[in-house]
Design brief:
The chain is mainly alpha-helical and about 130 residues long. The chain is built from five helices and two strands.
Length: about 130
Amino acid sequence: MEEKSLDHRLAALESRLARLETLLERTAVDTDAAKAGIQQWVTEYVSLRLQQLVPETCEHAPDDTAAHGPVLPGTRIRCTEEVLHRLGRIPIPFVRQMVTQKVAETARAEHVVTVDVPFFERAATF
């Protein structure tokens, strides 16, 4: 009896596969349109998730002590144009970033309002 049931189930499965093949053959699939639709969906989904993760407005009150004029890149610590020029002359980007971070940390620790060339030369020494 088990063999008869198995044969019946196999025949039913083969019948379904045959119908599926017939449907797929009759249906012309536009792969370019499908690809464009998937890309659009992914773009919208990623955009939505980014908006959820990174809101456009900050939760805290704006800082009234925001620096005006040149600042160390990636910080709000004021500096002179000459300091920016010297940073720009460092050819390797990650070294430039490390120097900027070290100078910024030293300026914060010493409560320096504006980084000038003498302070930069002292603070940028490793």
